[in-house]
Amino acid sequence: MNTRSYELVYILKPNLDDEAKEAVFNKVKDLIAVNGEISSVDTWGNRKLAYPIKKFNEGFYNLVNFTGGNDVISEIDRNLKIMDSVIRHMIVRKDEK
C-alpha cells in the first residue's frame, strides 16, 4: 500500500455548536484511521471568507495533516461533499522532501 502525506482544510458553517463541529472532526478522524494516520490538527476558528459561500461571509476553519492511501482520500472527499455542515473543503498532497 502506497501512503503519502496530505493536508485537508475544511470550512464549517460559522453558526454550528461545538458538538456539531466535533461530530464532523470525529467523522474525518474515523475515515483517516481506517487506512491512515493523523499527524497534526490545527483549528483556526472562525475566519472571514474571501467571498460569500452558500450565503456565509465567514466560516470555521480546521486543518488536518495526515498520511494515507488513495482510498482514504476518495472516501474523505465523498463524505465531506454530502455533509450539510461543511461549506468547503480541499485535500492537497504534500511534497515529499
What's this, in brief?
It contains 2 helices and 4 strands, in the order βαββαβ.
- Radius of gyration (CA) equals 13 Å
- The count of DSSP E runs of length 2 or more, i.e. the number of strands, is 4
Q: Profile the largest sheet.
A: 4 strands, antiparallel
* Count of runs of 4 or more consecutive helical residues: 2
Can you write the helix and strand succession as a string? EHEEHE
Strand order of the largest sheet: 2-3-1-4
Pairing-aware structural class of the strands and helices? alpha+beta
The first-to-last residue Cα distance is 20 Å
User: Which stretches are poorly predicted, pLDDT < 50 over at least 5 residues?
Assistant: none
Structure in words:
This protein has 97 residues and is of the alpha+beta class. A hairpin with a 2-residue loop joins strand 2 and strand 3.
